[in-house]
């Protein structure tokens, strides 16, 4: 199983929380949000709140390179702003710059006041660089602060999956799945790991359980696609799901 760019599975809460322009709800449509926050940003590119809102909107709209460029300039204009650093690190990870993302995120919090969300995000960056043992030490630190968080546990499971330890991956994902706060992506991750162990009927039951027929069918189709990619001939491109680095759940 190789590291791929698919981030449709496990996702954490946004690493910066509810940051963005103050006193007004964000537009729910990503394109509209880009337009709204873009106007504010262009009016004052050095305004940290405007840059945060614009960067988040660009990321949500899939404009990853532009988001990274906006947030890079914002961190230069606002040195030491940890909310901006956190978003910039996330944007770098969106673009596959995992080592740089890890380094930037390290500046967004400190050992004496760690943010468990950022610890988990750093873990996912390490996993994408193949540094799985080191990644799991970051997840362990995050779980000491936020015990039982299903997003972090799901990342632990994906980390074990990427290092081909499927029984441990399943154990972590079952813990995540048992949480009432678990997202649908945790269900998909668990189904995938069970399917990778050859138990497709059980995997199908997991991804379909308690869902409307259309969503259940979509989950099964996705599961089949992921498993077929895993069985592709050596050298063929694969799309192994990896934990997201901080999009809202």
UniProtKB/TrEMBL annotation:
Pfam families: TPR_19, TPR_8. SMART domains: TPR. Keywords: Repeat, TPR repeat. TPR repeats lie at residues 116-149. InterPro entries: TPR-like_helical_dom_sf, TPR_rpt, UCP035836, Ycf3/AcsC/BcsC/TPR_MFPF. Coiled coil: none annotated. Residues 1-33, 228-249 are annotated as: Disordered. This is Tetratricopeptide repeat protein.
């Amino acid at each position: 199983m190789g590291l791929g760019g698919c981030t449709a599975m496990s996702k954490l809460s946004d690493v910066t929380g509810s940051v963005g322009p103050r006193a007004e709800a964000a537009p729910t449509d990503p394109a509209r949000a880009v337009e709204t926050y873009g106007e504010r940003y262009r009016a004052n590119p050095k305004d940290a709140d405007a840059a945060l809102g614009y960067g988040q909107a660009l990321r949500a709209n899939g404009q990853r390179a532009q988001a990274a460029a906006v947030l890079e300039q914002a961190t230069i204009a606002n040195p030491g702003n940890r909310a901006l650093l956190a978003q910039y690190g996330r944007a770098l990870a969106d673009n596959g710059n995992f080592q740089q993302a890890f380094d930037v995120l390290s500046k967004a919090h400190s050992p004496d006041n760690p943010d468990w969300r950022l610890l988990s995000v750093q873990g996912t960056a390490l996993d994408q660089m193949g540094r799985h043992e080191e990644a799991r030490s970051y997840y362990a630190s995050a779980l000491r602060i936020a015990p039982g968080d299903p997003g972090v546990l799901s990342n632990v499971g994906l980390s074990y999956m990427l290092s081909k330890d499927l029984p441990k991956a399943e154990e972590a994902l079952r813990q995540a799945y048992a949480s009432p706060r678990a997202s649908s992506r945790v269900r998909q991750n668990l189904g995938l790991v069970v399917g990778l162990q050859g138990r497709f009927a059980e995997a199908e039951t997991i991804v379909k359980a308690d869902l409307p027929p259309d969503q259940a069918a979509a989950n099964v189709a996705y599961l089949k696609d992921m498993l077929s990619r895993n069985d592709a001939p050596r050298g063929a491109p694969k799309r192994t799901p990896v934990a997201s680095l901080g999009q809202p759940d």
